[in-house]
Amino acid sequence: MKDPIAVIEAAYRVESSDTVWLEELARVSAATMGSDHGALAFQYDASSGDWVYITGLAFRGLPPEFVQQMFDQPDATPEQAKQFAKLYTSITFGSMRETFIPVVPEFAELLAHFRIDDIVGINAVDPTGRGCMVGVATSNKAYATNTRELWQRLAAHVSAGSRLRKTLQAIVQDTADPTTTAEAVINPDGRVEHAIGEAEPREARDALRDALVRIDRARSRRESPTSSVELWRALVSGRWSVVEHFERDGKRYYLAYKNDPELAADRALTPRERQVFAYAELGHSDKLIAYSLGLSLSTVSTLLSNARRKLGTSLELMRSSLESDAEDGEKAT
Fold this sequence. Notes:
- With 333 residues, this protein is α+β, with helices and mostly antiparallel strands.
- The protein has twelve helices and nine strands.
- It has three domains: 5-158, Beta-Lactamase, CATH 3.30.450.40; 177-262; 264-333, Winged helix-like DNA-binding domain superfamily/Winged helix DNA-binding domain (Arc Repressor Mutant, subunit A), CATH 1.10.10.
- The chain has helices at residues 5-11, 18-33, 64-70, 78-88, 96-100, 106-113, 145-174, 202-220, 225-231, 271-281, 286-293, 297-332; strands spanning 39-45, 53-60, 93-95, 118-125, 130-138, 184-186, 192-195, 240-246, 252-258.
């Protein structure tokens, strides 16, 4: 695999328009996969659970007619629509042939008509049901487990980058200076020059400094591609994305923004337990959850155990309450 760090760097280029961002993701993903047959990238919203709504699209090197027909399929039945939406919230890496054709058989004819062997890519989805998919036209037929895991990690960054873009777009409407809304400002040497809220405690500052060191090592390309990707986690301490920022005088800083998925509150679970459990519901492995959130594997395991225990207890209490109400009703009659 060629330079997967380039995909991560593209994911966090937050200053460009959505179209330019998607075009760059498509370009670097194709280069990283070693394909010159074209690629596409698109943002979507599958949060309703009954359909997938495309909210942004860009492509390069693919026939425009192919892309148009790919997204202009005949109306599906409600059951097919739900099945299609479920795909988008359950896969992280796959191909059109192995994943989508079983649901949409017409895709097989589409590939054949345009003489495209397959479209392989990553699905950068988070627990909100919103994300970004990047597909590369390729003739490769199989991918080793470690290759799939590497692309799944790249998907975690694309997901974080997509969320961050929406956050920053909202911020720009309120202020022209993004440093005023970051929770931490870090200089290139790793010193935290400014911190507010959750970033103020020493433990948080240490975590941000350590993350910046790891990011710099990853960007140096001195490590192997796999090791470089491992160094650069998708979030820091389950909360922050760290992005490069240049002031007008050329001075460079790193800004730490709160960028974890916004999930509905759950009285039975702590926010972090809810967060980890939500990723597990997407089918993410413990290792991928740890990487996506920037937590240790043992922390993820503990949080998941706690969440499942609490939810199991809540379910048992609910059943007991219902049974008790039923018995009271029988006595009353």
